Amino acid sequence: MAVLSTPRSAVQLASKGRPVREHLFRIALIASLGIAFVFLAALLSYVLVEGWPRIDSRLWENMPSVRNPDIAGAQSAITGTLWVISLTAVLTLPTGIAAAIYLEEYADKTRWWNRVIELNIQNLAAIPSIVYGILGLGIIARTFGLGFSVITASMTLGLLVLPIVIIASREAIRAVPPSIREGSLALGATQWQTISRQVLPASIPGIATGSILALSRAIGEAAPLLMLGAVSFIRFNPDGVFASYTVLPIQIFNWISQSREGFHVLASAAIVILLLILLLMNSVAIWLRNRYQKRW
Can you tell me where the transmembrane regions are (predicted)? Predict the structure, then answer.
């Protein structure tokens, strides 16, 4: 019986070529990471240096001003941002997580409508944000009669990030080992008890990370809110979900469009505040992830 063998020269060439390719690939990855880090550090350094003179209590205590940048602040924009992103989280996270539970734990993959739902969710995640702004203007603001209010902005941004929350939550639930489900069911637990007491706690780190990334996208959006009539100059804080509002991205856009240098400094300072809010949100996600990873 003949035994097929690879020539020794070919094996040696392959063994020599593989480390070279792996080394080049590793260099390319490190270079890409380094370039991204350099650009990010340059951007953060520029914004921090440019806005440092106005990072003081005036920025979050004073209202905007169209005439004097020395007394202008961003209190209404900061408050409006917190209102909009908090309501977006309240509307989006329970809906997205519930949809992920249904699609991953209950839905019959052989049914055509479940496959259509999954396909549409993946497609909706790639739609430009301005399209959601048009949808919110035509249906939520006008057809539903909610007007240009906090609830309209939150619902529109919720629709924008809902596919991301669903996809991230499904991946986190899918990553839970099947043995956990099987052991729980074998001990007599119902399917919902298994999901609520075993699967969901084990998937919280992934769900939290995906949810914060989705909300981080929502908090920086300006295009859909421009379509929804977010006011660029407002001197009062929202007092309810049906109140008028402005947000930090809109306020930054307004200041950077001004010709005077003082407003440009204000825009940089407001960017730092927006980044601090994002950092706080990410810190909460990291805390949740570490807490539940230690438990599981």
Answer: 24-49, 82-103, 124-141, 147-168, 240-257, 263-288
Architecture of domain 75-292: Orthogonal Bundle (1.10)
Rounded to whole angstroms, how far apart are CA atoms 189 and 184? 6
pLDDT digits (tens, 9 = 90+) for 104-114: 888 887 788 88
CA distance 21 to 68: 59
Crossing angle of the two packed helices 200-219 and 150-174, in degrees rounded to 10: 140
| E-state strands within the chain | none
Quickly count: other Cβ atoms within 10 Å of residue 93's Cβ. Answer: 20
Q: pTM for the complete prediction? A: 0.82
pLDDT tens by residue, 220-246: 888 888 888 776 678 888 888 998 888
> 46-51: which pairs have CB atoms within 8 A and are 24 or more residues apart?
46/268, 47/268, 47/271, 47/272, 47/275, 48/268, 48/272, 50/264, 50/265, 50/268, 51/265, 51/266, 51/267, 51/268, 51/269, 51/270, 51/271, 51/272
Amino acid at 7: P
Domain-wise residue ranges, the chain:
75-292
CA 164 centroid distance within chain: 8
The average confidence (pLDDT) of the chain is 85
Number of CB atoms found within 10 A of residue 267's CB: 24
- Summarised one tens digit per residue, pLDDT across range 237-292 is 888 899 888 899 999 988 888 888 888 999 999 999 998 998 888 888 788 777 77
Q: Do residues 263 and 255 make contact, with C-beta atoms less than 8 angstroms apart?
A: yes
Alpha carbon distance 25, 33 (integer Å):
12
Give the pLDDT confidence of 182-195 residue by residue, as tens digits.
888 888 888 888 99
